[in-house]
């Protein structure tokens, strides 16, 4: 497989899936008029009566049950998986790219692609029954790099949020410009749980990205926003293992939350090796803060690396792909006698490449944690 195919194939699949999903929604809404149906969640733990016709994802959201969906229900992330225990029809082509053979046999489906046409029974993680919608105001917007902004949200008093460092929320923005509907996307929180009246997010601008365009070009201080959460299994495990953390770009967010939470809780008996990959110095941020943290927390080691530094960067640090730097440290710097676990945040491609390096150096996949946002 050549590099162009490697890069474009996932994009083509996502575009085709999104187009198919839109066609299905339009046709279904034109030819059907559905009555009320019952949704049985977790064997009667919660039962809902609601109007049929919409996607299961949207219907559950309207009833206060929020299923993770990094793409906002566009059939391009595969995050909204639920186990169905009743007949909802055959698996759709839009679901196939995101379901393993084992998941197909176990009747795992994408909630965004299931249309509520009859009574339905499903199983979801119990924690999702306690996910909430929050109202907040934009307290500040800080430009960290040319394409990454830090937005700090203040929850409307007296509300507060209880989350684990490393988890994420789904930010919802209103219609704007030529975008006629609300848009939501998943973002890891970079703030610590101790400040439960604020949520801090790092949003990287993606050309053509509906939510990132809003944040970077339309969002203003003091405006009201809505988000749901918390979501995710990406959080610090209660062990004594050394930590290998790898991130790039806005993937900084959950790692920052975890290590600062550890500092606040005085968890100093675990070595932390944090590898942060960037292209050039203009892609780096929080350097002074993390350097200071290393002085306050001797168990914390921060290793930034540039893959393609400019001559004007005057860079004296590590140079090369972050996976190569990680491999070098695992082989020659980090003790191979201690137990280890890894925490990763970045693009799906970066995560896949990093997992291979970690596996090759003896770290089993069960000890590697991440939320892969497609």
Can you describe what's shown?
There is one protein chain. This protein is α/β, with parallel strands linked by helices and 374 residues long. Helix content is 26%, strand content 27%. It has 3 domains: 36-128, Beta-grasp domain (Ubiquitin-like (UB roll)), CATH 3.10.20.30; 131-231, Translation factors (Elongation Factor Tu (Ef-tu), domain 3); 242-372, Nucleotide-binding domain of ferredoxin-NADP reductase (FNR) module (Rossmann fold). The chain contains 8 helices and 17 strands. It has a 6-stranded antiparallel sheet. Strands 15-14-13-12-16-17 form a 6-stranded parallel sheet, with helices on both faces. The longest helix has 29 residues, at 3-31. It is globular and about 65 Å long. Mean pLDDT is 89; it is low at 1-15.
Could you give a quick summary of the protein structure above?
With 374 residues, this protein is an alpha/beta fold.
- Strand arrangement in the largest pleated sheet: 9-8-11-6-7-10
| Strand and helix order | HEEHEHEEEEEEEHEEHEHEEHEHE
Gap between N and C termini = 20 Å
Task: Tell me the domain tally.
Answer: 3
- pLDDT averaged residue by residue: 89
In terms of DSSP E residues, the strand content is: 25-35%
Q: What's the CATH class label of the largest domain?
A: Alpha Beta
Question: What portion of residues is helical?
Answer: 25-40%
User: Major sheet: size, sense and barrel closure?
Assistant: 6 strands, antiparallel
Count of β-strands: 17
Apparent shape:
globular
Q: Structural class of the helices, strands and pairings? A: alpha/beta
Treating each run of at least 4 consecutive H or I residues as one helix, how many helices?
A: 8
CATH fold naming of the largest domain: Rossmann fold
Please tell me the CATH architecture of the largest domain by its name.
3-Layer(aba) Sandwich
What is the alpha-carbon Rg in Å?
Answer: 22 Å
Q: CATH homologous superfamily name of the largest domain?
A: Nucleotide-binding domain of ferredoxin-NADP reductase (FNR) module
Low-confidence segments, ≥5 residues, pLDDT <50?
Answer: 1-15
């Amino acid at each position: 497989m050549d590099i162009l195919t490697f890069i474009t194939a996932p994009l083509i699949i996502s575009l085709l899936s999104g187009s198919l999903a839109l066609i299905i929604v339009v046709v279904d809404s034109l030819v059907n008029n559905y009555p009320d149906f019952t949704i049985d969640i977790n064997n009667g733990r919660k039962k809902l009566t609601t109007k049929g016709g919409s996607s299961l994802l949207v219907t559950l959201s309207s009833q206060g049950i929020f299923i993770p969906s990094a793409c906002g229900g566009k059939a391009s992330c595969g995050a909204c998986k639920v186990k169905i225990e009743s007949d909802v029809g055959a698996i759709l082509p839009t679901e196939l790219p995101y379901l393993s053979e084992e998941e197909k046999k176990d009747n795992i489906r994408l909630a965004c692609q299931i249309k509520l046409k009859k009574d339905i029974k499903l199983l979801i993680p119990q924690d999702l029954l306690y996910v909430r919608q929050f109202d907040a105001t934009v307290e500040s917007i800080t430009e960290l790099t040319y394409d990454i902004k830090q937005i700090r949200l203040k929850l409307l008093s007296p509300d507060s949020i209880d989350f684990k460092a490393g988890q994420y929320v789904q930010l919802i923005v209103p219609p704007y410009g030529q975008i006629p509907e609300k848009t939501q996307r998943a973002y890891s929180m970079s703030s610590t749980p101790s400040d439960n009246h604020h949520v801090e997010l790092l949003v990287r601008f993606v050309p053509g990205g509906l939510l990132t365009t809003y944040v970077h070009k339309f969002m203003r201080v003091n405006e009201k926003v809505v988000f749901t959460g918390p979501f995710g299994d990406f959080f610090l495990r209660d062990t004594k293992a050394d930590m290998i953390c790898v991130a790039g770009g806005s993937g900084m967010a959950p790692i920052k939350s975890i290590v600062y939470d550890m500092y606040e809780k005085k968890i100093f008996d675990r070595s932390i090796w944090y590898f942060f990959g960037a292209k050039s110095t203009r892609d780096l941020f929080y350097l002074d803060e993390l350097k200071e943290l290393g002085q306050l927390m001797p168990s914390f080691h921060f290793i930034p690396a540039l893959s393609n530094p400019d001559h004007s960067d005057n860079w004296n640090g590590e140079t090369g792909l972050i996976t190569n730097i990680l491999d070098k440290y695992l082989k020659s710097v980090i003790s191979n006698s201690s137990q280890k676990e890894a925490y990763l945040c970045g693009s799906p491609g970066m995560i896949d490449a990093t997992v291979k390096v970690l596996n090759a150096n003896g770290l089993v996949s069960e000890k590697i944690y991440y939320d892969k946002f497609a």
